[in-house]
Amino acid sequence: MEYQEIKSRMQEVLARPVRPIPEDKLEPERRRYFEQHKRSLDIFEKAKNLIPGGVEHNLSQNKPFPLAMDRAKGYKVWDVDGNEYIDYLMCGAPIILGHSFSPLDEKIIELIRDKGPGMGLTSEYELLAAEQIIRHMPGVEMVRFLQSGTEADMAVIRIARAFTGKQKIIKIGGSYHGWSDQMVYSIHLPGTVNMQSRGIPDECYAHIVDVAPNDFDGLEKAFKDNQDKGGVAGILVEPIGGESGSHPVHPDWNMTIRKLCDQYESLLIFDEVVTGFRLDMGGAQKLFNIKPDLTVLGKIITHGYPSSGAVAGRKDVMSVCTGSMMEKIYIGGTLAANPISMAACYHALKLIEEHDAVGKATAYANRLTKALNDLFATRPDLGFFVYNFGPIMHYVTTAFFSVSLSSPDALDQINTRRKTADDYQLIGMSQGLCTLAGTRMYTCMQHDDESLKKTVGIWEYLLSLIPKG
């Protein structure tokens, strides 16, 4: 589905009234959810006394309560109550070979058994992992490993400022670049500015410039207006759009950014935490043929193994990480580049390439996208639709991500639409369908005809609960 059609159909959904499941049909589903997940509920009730909110993970299905998972294999996960799910969360995108992929796991088990998990010193796997990333990504000549995507985003801002001698960082509204102080600004929804910044001093945003998605005039103005205010060190973007494509980019957007960065001697930074090695082995930068100066990588480079993040880019830019104490920027991390993570990176990237995991996951996503759109076409009164960027799928039912904050009732709209989307997701989970945030689905190479058939069947059931109108 092309950009203009996606945007048009989003607006069509927003123009329609929200279509909630009637309470007389929702209540039995809610009771079934509680009945099916008694152990998860017990764990949650106990966790609330020990963990703030009772749950650690932002990606969890948290309403009416989060489910505690027990194990995963291939495209399936099982909770502590024994319920089975078709998984499209995929640990938030890094799993593309499939869960518990034996050829990868056996390499890590062998490493731990024979050599130990780490010593806080350099291992050969750092070199091997870096070589794999550099071989695939056009914009990468050097790699500095860190422990998370959030850390990598923190580091890349420091690198850009040190290299250019400039201060401002342009951030596109609605994009997610981790939860560091500077980046919790207009996250998730464009225009939210500091609405989610409790505990963060306003001064932290002094050099962050917020630009709305696909605002070409506003983008050029941001570069021009800040020339005499410290200059733009770099612009940080998700190359398919904010929230992994929930706010899709205009076809000319990334190239325009590249040209403006060249014109104003600023750095183009691609945050490829989700798109790297999922959209293409060379990331969005290879697929779109646009070379960034710096690249942020995260959980996918270790295929879900922990302590995973990296900043990568041009050798001259990355050189600010080296030198004497007074010359180099400061970056740390005791567990950064530990042998487990580096071995996981090296072997995972080799296996993803050898098995054509990206190609297989993309082919399945294309099939599922068509099947769901065919199903949704039978209910034109709803306007639901699906679009995908390779194995990154978005399904639009209430379009709460697309509500404009300029609307006088914007927050009420967002809350109402989000609640209805949560109810839809509750139905999906109770029927055995695990997705991300009621909007997103990530595919892996092991999704098959059976998973497709079951997924469409669950959506058929969900649609049957929504009255026609």
Helix-strand blueprint:
Blueprint: H1 3-15, H2 23-36, H3 38-47, E1 69-73, E2 76-79, E3 84-87, H4 102-115, H5 124-136, E4 142-146, H6 149-164, E5 168-172, E6 208-211, H7 216-225, E7 232-237, H8 242-245, E8 247-248, H9 253-263, E9 267-271, H10 283-287, E10 294-297, E11 309-313, H11 315-318, H12 339-354, H13 357-376, E12 385-389, E13 392-396, H14 410-431, E14 433-434, E15 440-442, H15 449-464
Parallel strand pairs: 3-14, 5-6, 5-7, 7-9, 9-10
Antiparallel strand pairs: 1-2, 2-3, 4-11, 10-11, 12-13, 13-15
Helix pairs in contact: 2-14, 4-12, 5-12, 7-9, 13-15
Explain how this protein is built.
By secondary structure, the protein is of the alpha/beta class. The protein has two domains: 3-97 and 356-464, Aspartate Aminotransferase, domain 1 (Alpha-Beta Complex), CATH 3.90.1150; 102-354, Type I PLP-dependent aspartate aminotransferase-like (Major domain) (Aspartate Aminotransferase, domain 2, 3-Layer(aba) Sandwich), CATH 3.40.640.10. It contains 15 helices and 15 strands. Strands 4-11-10-9-7-5-6 form a seven-stranded mixed sheet, sandwiched between helices. It has a four-stranded mixed sheet with strand order 1-2-3-14. α10 links the parallel β9 and β10. α4 runs antiparallel to α12 and α5 packs parallel to α12 (339-354). 49% of the residues are buried. The model has no long low-confidence stretch (mean pLDDT 96).
